[in-house]
Amino acid sequence: xxxxxxxxxxxxxxxxxxxxxxxxxxxxxxxxxxxxxxxxxxxxxxxxxxxxxxxxxxxxxxxxxxxxxxxxxxxxxxxxxxxxxxxxxxxxxxxxxxxxxxxxxxxxxxxxxxxxxxxxxxxxxxxxxxxxxxxxxxxxxxxxxxxxxxxxxxxxxxxxxxxxxxxxxxxxxxxxxxxxxxxxxxxxxxxxxxxxxxxxxxxxxxxxxxxxxxxxxxxxxxxxxxxxxxxxxxxxxxxxxxxxxxxxxxxxxxxxxxxxxxxxxxxxxxxxxxxxxxxxxxx
Length: 283
Fold this sequence. Notes:
Oligomer: single chain
Number of strands: 3
Shape: elongated
Number of domains: 2
């Protein structure tokens, strides 16, 4: 078996190990049952990973238990009945890092909205934000000294998300060099991203900006703001980031997995994202 394949399987098994450790579940690998593995698969699904990525992780877990059978450590494979994601399941496109870089590089920085649009894309991809979280982001939500932004997600639940160095630099550049010169309408004084009239951007405008930028960049894919959120999760997981940290960053609140995340440490989350996100460091 190729070394790369072996290493990939090891990473997948480690994901399962971290999942159990995060949920304070103490179980010998030889004692794991299908029900427990199904919970793990649910977590993968909630992260909105590409079906191919989910399938590869499940395949890695199956191979691990096949190995245990071959070593006469267990008599049956508890992962054998795990369901693979349906091929027909509709999920947003995943952009490669090269495609994301191409889209960002295609933004016309000579235009007034260039700095703003680049900052928005950097946050969508760098922080995995929902559109509503992006347009409602406030200046008072930015914790420059700690390297975090605080966003309000579904159910008015707040979460802190680490700012990668590239996103942080671009956001500060937009605020200090462009936004500071705008005439701001009453009620929008604390809103980060403004339109040409000094008001908060709408969801429809964000969708339009992203779609037009994808055309300019020559990306032949159906791209929406959510594409960056989906790519954020997929890239982190495929690079080996901790599942719990990624789920916390996405702001998922599934009843079946909430307990896993109650013991998360903020600095641990920050280091996990900054270590694995491809645009978290300045070159």
